């Protein structure tokens, strides 16, 4: 079934599809290449990631484990570098919030990407990775004075300013540090992008940026008159998991229009236009995201045409993919603990398959009604397909990892399940709910695996509990 056949928006767990909208796939053992890492395959029935069998990963690293295919990350990063012609001065920023650790920061530095961070914590990881500071951009609608100081002291390439309070605050921080800080002004262009549609509006009712018009004009004037700030460009980010480039195209038009107004009003030509991230990936069969080359061609074409029409020098174009770089490279491996059949109206039986993680390592299903693809991983099976729901171990009925899936009817305790496309916004949004330790992130490459972020332990959880010291004190 094609994703575009239904509109964007939440679908509710309590509305049972009758009949179930997507029939079972012909072969449950098949891995859709659009959803799984490039090198994922079944060897003797078992899913193997970059040459490492999932049973070996589970044995060595335990479950659940988030597995990231290094070659897959690098290949996707390169695709963007080539598509956006980084060699000619354009920039591809990896949005670190999708998932950030020092190793991945280093891979992406090597591939020629820049890096977006939006908190002091993300900046600390980038700096610990020795990511070149001039290639770091800093985002956020409420950066603290400390975070601004940290960024300016590190010598970050640019800071995206988001409010008039921040313009004044950053100007002061830069003045005290004795530097002239390059900034981009974040504008909201009145384009609200969803996966399947976009809405162009005059006003946007959200917390980020300056609305086009008076707010953006005033912000630009404020930056231009701030002694310690240098206006490097404009920034726009329209949403996430976008499949259709038309929203980006409208945004590009409007941002170039504003750049022309800045030139006319202030005599300043801007060096950079950043169109943000949000490029979609395939989570389930039928999802059909645009290729980086296709997106780049359209956006560069528009910016060139509009700039030529306005007599503007074509600025550097930048984009900020997060999900599109690491999303599909990640797979979460869980072990099945229990299987329970639940009878539903209409003669359905749904198998509730409980795994050893859940909303603490993947909140997206509960939060966004996200859809995922999941497969029996430690073996293939010829058993009948069974309507299944993969659930976690947390004390919430909404603790669902995969809401609707078909799995072989013989899936049982001890089997491994692999959930695809969990590289972005899963481990980075992980919590310790129910005091479940967060899973490790393991890199795979050429038949070997390396821990990138180790598994949290119960000791890690107890370490933050200041009462322990007091109890230990009374005991001795
Ligand atoms: C979240 C975000 C991104 C990355 O979004 P993806 O959907 O992961 O590509 C890029 N830029 C900004 C400003 C963001 O907030």
Q: In terms of topology, how is this protein built?
A:
Elements: E1 41-43, E2 46-49, E3 52-53, H1 54-61, E4 65-69, H2 70-83, E5 91-95, H3 102-110, E6 114-117, H4 120-128, E7 136-138, H5 145-154, E8 158-161, H6 164-177, E9 181-188, E10 191-193, E11 198-200, E12 210-211, H7 214-225, E13 229-235, H8 246-266, E14 272-274, H9 292-310, E15 316-319, H10 323-326, E16 330-343, E17 349-355, H11 364-368, E18 374-376, E19 385-391, E20 400-408, E21 416-420, E22 441-445, E23 448-453, H12 458-463, H13 467-475
Parallel strand pairs: 4-22, 5-6, 5-15, 6-7, 7-8, 8-9, 9-12, 9-13, 13-14, 14-15, 17-19
Antiparallel strand pairs: 1-2, 2-3, 4-16, 10-11, 16-17, 16-21, 18-21, 19-20, 22-23
This protein binds pyridoxal-5'-phosphate.
Features:
TIM Barrel; 476 residues; Lyase, Ornithine Decarboxylase, Chain A, domain 1; nine-stranded mixed beta sheet; binds pyridoxal-5'-phosphate; 29% helix; globular
Question: Explain this structure to me?
Answer:
This protein has 476 residues and is an alpha/beta fold. It has two domains: 13-69 and 328-463, Lyase, Ornithine Decarboxylase, Chain A, domain 1; 71-326, TIM Barrel. Helix content is 29%, strand content 24%. It is built from 13 helices and 23 strands. It has helices spanning 54-61, 70-83, 102-110, 120-128, 145-154, 164-177, 214-225, 246-266, 292-310, 323-326, 364-368, 458-463, 467-475, and strands spanning 41-43, 46-49, 52-53, 65-69, 91-95, 114-117, 136-138, 158-161, 181-188, 191-193, 198-200, 210-211, 229-235, 272-274, 316-319, 330-343, 349-355, 374-376, 385-391, 400-408, 416-420, 441-445, 448-453. The strands form four sheets. Strands 4, 16, 17, 18, 19, 20, 21, 22 and 23 form a nine-stranded mixed sheet that branches. It has an eight-stranded parallel beta barrel with strand order 5-6-7-8-9-13-14-15, surrounded by six helices. A three-stranded antiparallel sheet has the order 1-2-3. The radius of gyration is 24 Å and the shape is globular. Pyridoxal-5'-phosphate binds next to α10. Residues 95, 97-98, 116, 139, 237, 240, 276-279, 320-324, 424 line the site of pyridoxal-5'-phosphate (PLP).
